[in-house]
Amino acid sequence: MPENARKTRWYSTGGPWGTGLLLLGVAVTVIGLNMLTADRARQSGPVRALSVVLPLWALGGLWVAAGLHSVWQALTPPQRHRDVLPVVAITSLWALAYLAYWLVTGAVYGRWSREWSGGVGWGSLTMLIISWGRCVNPPRRR
């Protein structure tokens, strides 16, 4: 949507929106790379539970793909609001995994743990990204 991106060089992000998207993409890619190299036994309970459905390498691949998509979009202005959708999807999945794990372990096994805070944290990050994703680059000064 930011059609007034100020891209003047081939390596530019075109403005603050693109820079934020680049930083987000790098962070998400690093999380994915960490997952690709991680040991399943050392992961948190919600991630271990989610890795029963999808292997850890596939989850890490989803994170890397979402991050690289963001990096690519950041370096090719003009950016659009929908450029954050892959990151929103993966952080939403993480929030739901943490909250579901907390509910299942509490309701079924009677062990009410602190995973709810991870779910709230990931959910809040998701909402922040959605809110930020609605922003546009400010108009150029003359």
Q: What distinguishing features does this structure have?
A:
elongated; mainly alpha; 5 helices; 142 residues
Write the layout of secondary structure elements.
Layout: H1 16-37, H2 45-53, H3 56-74, H4 85-109, H5 115-133
Helix pairs in contact: 1-3, 2-4, 3-4, 4-5
Describe this structure in words.
- By secondary structure, this protein is mostly helical.
- The protein is elongated, with a radius of gyration of 18 Å.
- It starts with 15 loop residues before the first helix and ends in a 9-residue tail after the last helix.
- The protein is built from 5 helices and no strands.
- The model has no long low-confidence stretch (mean pLDDT 84).
What integer value in Å does the Rg equal?
Answer: 18 Å
- Approximately how much helix is present in the residues? 55-70%
**Number of DSSP strand runs:** 0
The largest pleated sheet is described as:
none
**Amino-to-carboxy terminus distance:** 21 Å
Spatial shape: elongated
Q: SSE order in H/E notation? A: HHHHH
SS class: mainly alpha
Q: What's the rounded overall pLDDT mean?
A: 84
What is the overall number of helices? 5
Low-confidence stretches at least 5 residues in length (pLDDT < 50)? none
Tell me the strand percentage band: under 5%
Summarize the structure.
It is built from five helices and no strands.
